Structure prediction request, 337 residues.
Amino acid sequence: MRDHASAADVQHVVDLLTEAGAEAHLSRGEVKTIIGVIGDREVIYSLEFEGLPGVEQVVRVLKPFKLVSRDFQPEDTVVRARGTAIGGGAFAVVAGPCSIESEEQMFSTARAAADAGANMLRGGAFKPRSSPYAFQGMGVEGLKLLRAAGDEVGLPVVTEVLDVRDAEVVAEYADVMQVGARNMQNFMMLDELGTMAKPVLLKRGLSATIEELLSAAEYILKGGNRDVILCERGIRTFETYTRNTLDLSAVAALKSLTHLPVMVDPSHATGRRDLIGPMCKAGIAAGADGLMIEVHPDPEHARCDGPQSLTPADFAALMSDLGPRIALEEKTMGAAS
Ligand code: PEP
Ligand code: MN
Prediction:
């Protein structure tokens, strides 16, 4: 309440709360009275306190998410896709091309990714492109190539589901369903994925807050699917030197707010191959449970995201550079289990 709010103004708020079935806890100071409210969230949110006489500020303490919250589940969620685990100390590296372009490209990337130690394979078959004239992906033919390449090298595969109408066909081939940044708040899609028995990799929207990302994940968990991996892939800022701005503080914040595993995608975050190594290390230091890295056998001729793609040789060098850090994560898991 405002400084020196009258007893009548305080009582009026208390009466409104009591009528709505909520409890009001008064904390009276010399100057200020604070009214703490406990009760059903929906009911409390439906009441309008702003503008009432004597009311200074309404602060929502309740988080809009519940199932994804660490308050709800203190232990880390471990998401499993075939032989790969992520979360709870298990570290995953997802590598592969931005888009699946051909059999030769997909298989050679898959072999290189597996040889270098990646434990999940990626490739886009349905591509969200800024321009309608840009390559839109190979569609179902691409899904088949990704599946076959993953099977050959023994890695689970992750691919984006761009439209809820494709969810079923994507699930037929994918081990992990990726929701792209542009679809993070596609609530119909989130609802649909919530009913499916497939892990979901949910990427942070281009301009989404941490709370919005967690609320999007809440949709999936609310539907019954608990296997969600969050992915920080950079957000829009005024900076143009990098494609986006990698929000590393979000990684650390998410690790304390939620039990879900958190992945970092330095490829889409920076758009620049020279920054991927340092940002992988920074992501690990911030507490990430995994990395997503774009790899292409011939980045100069890639149909999508060439400038941010590593060659197989660069990827192998990066993996051996990261080696001790990743191994440390795995050791932590061993100690905990
Ligand atoms: C991708 O991972 O291929 C992709 C399109 O990423 P984002 O949705 O983060 O832009
Ligand atoms: Mn890409």
About this structure: The chain is about 35% helix and 15% strand. Residues 98, 124, 128, 160, 180-182, 203, 233, 268 surround phosphoenolpyruvate (ligand 1) (CB under 6 Å). The CA atoms of residues 135 and 303 lie 7 Å apart.
